[in-house]
């Protein structure tokens, strides 16, 4: 909904959220979406770590969810990545891309039975941080969004 007041437009959005679940998946997050050409018109995922990561996400979803969530959802993902000893920057502003990390988890949420389909996600918040204590993986929060 947009309003024009005194030549300035304001966007008003009223969303009431209620947290449904929080959980963690331990492991090294892997991106999904980068393809590598292998010949004869075939492409494969560039990350060799993706199958193990997606499997870990799917398994954790099966442990947490009795049935898949449906309706408008907000998903918040906190990726905790290993920090190389040679790195001095505070944030992991390098590969892997946040959107490709999220794509792998969103597909894992669907295939693991956490959500009916990743098209139900209307709000997606993605954060990348370096690990402070050695733990790596993703922290997931799923909330319902009232329309």
Could you explain how this protein is built, in words?
The protein has helices spanning 50-64, 98-111; strands spanning 2-5, 8-11, 16-26, 35-39, 42-45, 73-81, 121-130, 137-146. The chain has one domain (16-146): Holliday junction resolvase RusA (60s Ribosomal Protein L30, Chain: A). The protein contains two helices and eight strands; from the N terminus they run βββββαβαββ. 20% of the residues lie in helices and 39% in strands. The chain has a four-stranded mixed β-sheet, with helices on one face. A two-stranded antiparallel ribbon has the order 1-2. Strands 4-5 form a two-stranded antiparallel ribbon. The protein is α+β, with helices and mostly antiparallel strands.
Outline the fold blueprint:
Layout: E1 2-5, E2 8-11, E3 16-26, E4 35-39, E5 42-45, H1 50-64, E6 73-81, H2 98-111, E7 121-130, E8 137-146
Using brief descriptors, characterize the structure shown.
147 residues, alpha+beta, 60s Ribosomal Protein L30, Chain: A, four-stranded mixed β-sheet, two-stranded antiparallel ribbon, 2 helices, 8 strands, 20% helix, disordered N terminus
Shape descriptor reads globular
Tell me the strand order in the biggest sheet. 3-8-6-7
Structurally, how many domains make up the residues? 1
Q: Helix count?
A: 2
CATH class: Alpha Beta
User: What is the terminal-to-terminal distance?
Assistant: 13 Å
Query: Care to count the β-strands?
Result: 8
Average per-residue pLDDT, rounded, comes to 88
Classify the secondary structure makeup into a structural class: alpha+beta
The major sheet is characterized as:
4 strands, mixed
């Amino acid at each position: 909904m947009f309003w024009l007041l005194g030549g300035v437009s304001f966007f008003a959005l009223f969303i009431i959220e209620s947290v449904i679940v929080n959980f963690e998946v331990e492991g090294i997050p892997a991106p999904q979406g980068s393809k590598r050409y292998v010949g004869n018109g075939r492409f494969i995922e560039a990350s060799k770590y993706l199958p193990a990561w997606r499997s870990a996400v799917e398994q954790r979803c099966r442990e947490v969810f009795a049935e898949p969530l449906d309706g408008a959802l907000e998903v918040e993902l906190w990726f905790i990545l290993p920090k190389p000893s040679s790195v001095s920057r505070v944030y992991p502003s390098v590969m892997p891309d946040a959107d490709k990390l999220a794509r792998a988890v969103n597909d894992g949420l669907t295939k693991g039975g956490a959500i009916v389909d990743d098209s139900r996600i209307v709000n997606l918040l993605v954060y990348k941080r370096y690990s402070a204590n050695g733990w790596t993986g993703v922290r997931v929060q799923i909330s319902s969004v009232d329309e």
